[in-house]
Amino acid sequence: MGYAASRSEPTAPLRIIAGSTYSAVCGAPHTAEFEREVIVERVKAGLANARAKGKRLGRPVRDPGTQARVVALKGEGLSLRQIAARERLSPSGVRKMLKQAGVETASALAPGPA
Length: 114
What we know:
single chain
């Protein structure tokens, strides 16, 4: 009879359960990795597209005149910390502005004269 033939093959729900269990145990980590890679690629492509269109990325500049004032104060001989206190910035932010302007700064960790 057809009964014996149908017993040798798993029923449809059993195949689905077995397949989903296999996917959950073996395939899920790979699926998550694949999804993450897809997201990373899309984000990178979007950023490249924005740059190609001339869009300025990153945090907007709070005050465009700050960099000029920082450079002028450094030219007057003030230290990074003094400039930072006057402009209400962090010393590392002041150093970054000076670096972008091409002004040389002495590193705080650089060894001094012996």
